[in-house]
Amino acid sequence: MKTTETETSTRKGEELDLRRLGTFLHDALPTLKGDLSVRQFPGGHSNLTYLVRIGKEEMILRRPPLGRKAKSAHDMNREYTVLRSLHEAFPWCPKPLLYVDDASVLGSPFFLMARIDGIVIRKELPAGIAFTPEQALALNENMVDVQVKLHAVDYKSIGLGNFGRPEGYVRRQVEGWSERYRQARTPDAPDCEGIMVWLRDRLPRDSGRASVIHNDFKLDNMVVDANDPTRIVGILDWEMATIGDPIMDFGNILAYRVQEDDPPDLKLMRFMPEPLEFALTRKAQIELYERKSGLSCDDINFYYAFGLFRLAVIAQQIYYRYYHRQTSDKRFEMMIVAVQILERAAGRTIEQGFR
User: Fold this and answer.
1) Which residues fall within 8 angstroms of residue 7, CB to CB, at 6 or more apart?
2) Distances, alpha carbon 55 to alpha carbons 38, 52, 106, in Å
3) Across all residues in the chain, what is the average pLDDT?
4) Which of 36, 59, 229, 322 could form a Cys-Cys staple with 332, CB 3.0–4.6 A?
5) With a threshold of 0.85, does the pTM exceed it?
6) Taking the chain, what is the end-to-end CA distance rounded to the nearest angstrom?
């Protein structure tokens, strides 16, 4: 992912053993020539991502974070398997290069993938990038289009038939994320029990269609063309991908979106630059997804409430690591505020319905 985002020196405590890594990579990939250097990407809050250079070659290295991990999270082999199977059928997927399960190299399994040329857009637009209203709408529509194309992949034909269990997927997600929240809750976090009970009691029927789902499909997990930033050229961070209900995947991306009539606290959760964030309302995005996918979003109140709760769980898991001093990354300190905002937003959705 060659981006305008500046790589930095590795954070304290997240350094890699360059001697061991260099020796291993020169043996495993003998065509690589030159000295090894490593920089870290500052974005993201989950798996650690590094830029690895050997001579003129550049690759991306992914490894699990330090500290407490959810039982099924941060499985490097699982993420690598998705990339290896999906890359040809879904060209937005990075090309996998090497999976390493030998923990003696870096202390945990890791994998390498090819770097995608382009730009990663985060909460603010990179310097030199601007969007007209028409371009902002085009990128939003392309995000929906790419997600629909992912959901249309014949996962059995690419060898992912046994990758997940689509039957009962929604129920397992509600149960699993509820348990993760209870396990990661800290004394200063809301209990969310009312939300978890509501989700459990209002499970919709499965959509009847299973697909590859990314489970974290959002703007800053995308690479856009530097010459045409309305065009998406890559999708990153496949660690939570599985086979399941595509409407759950779509509901998760809705939870990342804010709009101009949202309460002020929820607007603080803006993930995209304002020109992109406000170019498309949630309702317009739903209509576009239904039209392109042929699927119905009749139960969107449930899926949106679950998406908000799921984000609260992710934020709480991240905050847990900071609270228990398993990381020194100061970005994690304010995650408890995100948990509180998302808990209130999910509660409003339950009480007032989708808007």
Assistant:
1) 39, 40, 41, 42, 51
2) 12, 10, 21
3) 91
4) 322
5) yes
6) 35
Q: In the CATH hierarchy, which fold is given to the domain comprising 133-352?
A: Aminoglycoside 3'-phosphotransferase; Chain: A, domain 2 (3.90.1200)
Q: Which residues pair with 50 in a beta bridge?
A: 40, 61
pLDDT tens sequence across 137-178: 999 999 999 999 999 999 999 999 999 889 999 999 999 999
Number of H helices, E strands in the chain: 12, 9
Does the domain at 18-114 match CATH 3.40.50.720? Answer given as: no
Partnered with residue 228 across adjacent β-strands are none
Helix (H, G, I), strand (E, B), or coil: what is residue 27? helix
Residue 233 DSSP label: E
Residue 99: beta bridge partners? 111
Query: Would you state the structure tokens that stand for residue 276, as one six-digit string?
Result: 């992109």
Structure tokens at 233: 């050229």
Q: Which residues of the chain have pLDDT under 70?
A: 1-7, 43-46, 67-74
pLDDT, residue 2, reads 46
Residue 85 near residue 112 (C-beta atoms within 8 A): no
Residue 354: the pLDDT is 79
